[in-house]
Amino acid sequence: MTEMAQSTTASRRSAQVVAARLGRRYSAERTFRLLGLAAVVISIGFLGMLLVSIVGKGATAFLQTQVALEINFDPAVIDPQGTRDPAALDTADYQQLIRTAMITRLAPDADRTTRRDLTAMISAGAANQLRSMVVANPALIGTSHAVWLIAKDSVDMVMKGQASRQAGVGGNTLNERQQGWLSDLESSEQIRKAFNTTFFSVGDSRDPELAGIWGAVAGSFFSLLVTLVVSFPLGVAAAVYLEEFAPINRWTDVIEVNINNLAAVPSVVFGLLGLAVFLNVFHLPRSAPLVGGLVLALICLPTIIIAGRAALKSVPPSIRQAAAGLGASPLQIVAHHVLPLAMPGMLTGTILGMARALGETAPLLMIGMVAFIVDIPKGPLDPSAVLPVQVYLWAGSSERAFVEKTSAAILVLLLFLVAMNMVAIVMRKKFERRW
Question: How many domains does the chain have?
Fold first, then answer.
């Protein structure tokens, strides 16, 4: 009886120890889950703060302040000879028409200083607006029309609430007189905020109200086109050779290790390589999408090769064995059976690599794509900027209006990155096969 009692007591103690250990284990598991959930919530919170800040600063860039003026297309200013020569119409002093309209509307008795303050409220690009109108329709000469002209960035910031309404305070660079004229235009409904088509249709500019991203978008397009043409065939071919045909020896081991290491190399190293080889050795044009695309292709290659090998490994050996049993050669096995089944995974890896390349800045700075480029590139050999570099350039500008331009360009870049990643996810879900 004593031995049975002792055995029962020991069993109870063992059960209690086990229960205590299980309790601690479950408690530790709950704590771990809570810590993981807290980490996710904190990460989402920081991401939300970042997005709110960017959207808050950049949303107004999609609007443009415009001023309505009654423009007298005076023949004496535009075409004093009356020849309607396109060259004469293109070189006329349209700024004088704007100055006359501003003086007539706001300060008929203006002196020289007042005239200067008046014209400082209208963008320099307004003259180009009038020039385009007259060149397209010479019949405007000799008539008067109300035209909505682009306002200067100082007026634009006040109208959008990015600067204080009090002259000379809180980023407001207008003086008291200009602030009064602005209030006059508002009261007569001769000033408005419209969708900023300029932001999406022109290249960079020294004037914030005239700066656009189309040049950078075109440069990014040509750079990614070169990247895709170069990196995809090379990456797929390298993955197929290493996974299907390469012998297993010391050299292939060295190649595999180097490929994995290249995927972790800082991108600025590839920029130095492009500077040393593509520019200094092959003398390719500086600041051209061709060079940028080649450098970005070097960055994408390790990602495409690694993703391609993983996709080839996912194809079951039975596919190869069945094809070999029917008499197919090793090349036919790969080309007709293995590669088509692995291609969705390869395409997914390629899109992810391209998305990474789209956001790269450092290697492009090394090859000179930091230059101020106004013209829209027509091809891969024309000088251009790209979206990340455009963000970098605008972020370093001193004008307050470039802050919203920078944030808006970041939003556009994020939109492209999200779209590319969504395409990769959809392709993986649609074409992925589970064996």
Answer: 3
pLDDT (0 to 100) of residue 85:
86
Four-residue CA torsion sign, 362, 273, 231, 201 = positive
Give the C-alpha separation, 84 to 64, whole Å: 32
Q: Is 64 helix (H, G, I), strand (E, B) or coil?
A: strand
Q: Tell whether 324 and 349 lie within a shared domain.
A: yes
What is the 3 state secondary structure string of 346-413?
HHHHHHHHHHHHHCCCHHHHHCCCCCCCCCCCCCCCCCCCCHHHHHHHHHCCCCCHHHHHHHHHHHHH
Instruction: Identify the residue whose tokens are 């001193």.
Output: 398
Q: Among residues 174, 209, 244, which one ends one of the domains? A: 209
CA 381 – CA 290 distance, rounded (Å): 6
pLDDT at res. 35: 93
User: Which residue, of 177, 193, 209, is where some domain finishes?
Assistant: 209
Task: Give the per-residue pLDDT at 219.
Answer: 92
Do 47 and 177 belong to one domain? Answer: no
Amino acid at 47: L
Q: Exposed, middle or buried, 159 (CB in 10 Å: 0-12/13-18/19+)?
A: buried
CA neighbor of 92 nearest in space, from 63, 113, 71 = 71
**pLDDT for residue 433:** 67
Enumerate residue ranges in the chain where pLDDT < 50. Answer: none
- On whether both 348 and 240 belong to a single domain, the answer is yes
List the structure tokens of 389. Answer: 């570099």
CA 337 to chain centre: 38
Do residues 297 and 246 both lie within one domain?
yes
Number of neighbouring beta carbons within 10 Å of residue 117 = 18
84 and 7, same domain (yes or no): no
- Burial (0-12, 13-18, 19+ Cβ within 10 Å), 352: buried
Q: Tell me how far apart the alpha carbons of residues 247 and 254 are, in angstroms, rounded to a whole number.
A: 12
Q: Which residue range forms the structural domain that includes residue 24?
A: 2-59
Q: What is the pLDDT of residue 421?
A: 82
Residue 66's SS3 state is strand
